[in-house]
Fold Amidohydrolase family protein.
Amino acid sequence: MPTRRTFLSTSLAAVTSRALAQTQTAPEPVIDIHQHMNYHRRADEHLLAHQQAMGVTTSIILPAGTYLDRPSTHNGKSNGLAAQCATTQAAYDFAKAHPGAYIWAANEVTDLDTAPAEIEKWLKQGACMIGEQKFMVQCDSPESQKLYALAAAYNVPILLHFQHQTYNLGYDRFHTMLEKFPKTNFIGHAQAFWGNIDKNHDQKVNYPKGKITPGGITDRYLADYPNMFADMSAGSGLLALTRDEEHTTKFFDRHQDKILYGSDCADHLGRGPGCQGAQTLAAIRKLASSKTVERKILFENSRKLFRLA
């Protein structure tokens, strides 16, 4: 018969072994800074399944602004971020129903007179970001600048969708905003942002292909301004990753402290060839030059920027 000391030692060893095994097999944390509710009418249960299948441990819900018929929403055609996405109240409710795994941003149509007050109302309740700002306004408009100042006042980032002649116009002038608002952390996203990693980018082409010449506008913004960050999400981000893999690895090394993983994916499954978010994850893991760079992009940079525990 084993002695009490032997029994306790054996039990402690078994518990330690199980804990070690669980630690070794636990998934590495991943922060997805760019997801939406009701994205192309995707149900909440499919959003939850999608993020879980991708292995995302924290997701940020980006809401749409108020549905309005005005030029900045392309007379209503761009309502719901042009994808039927839900507004801030729904994002808030969803995050509160799934604490820890989901957090939420605040948003409103940029040139609406009540936009600053509406967004501030949600920032006071704990919104972690302003965005996704996806409206047809000049990126340096007076209305935009009010939101940039608000982001600085509440120490939250603001995420902008840059698309030539469509959303947040005048990307080539955006350096003036980076200089004017040094305490505002800006996150760039979408076609104009990612196309302009190439020095020879044709601004009229939303989804360029082929080899990349370093030194484009985005490359310079990330290098020259500590308050500029990159959202890796959507088809534009995935294409930027995969069109020139040799460039991507060097780009990751140059800007390893500035790049954030986001999916912006409307898929229901979170895996397979139809899931752009999962493809982006795989590309980052493949093309990062080291595990350190990979973990920065998938977790550490977002954890620091959003001040997550």
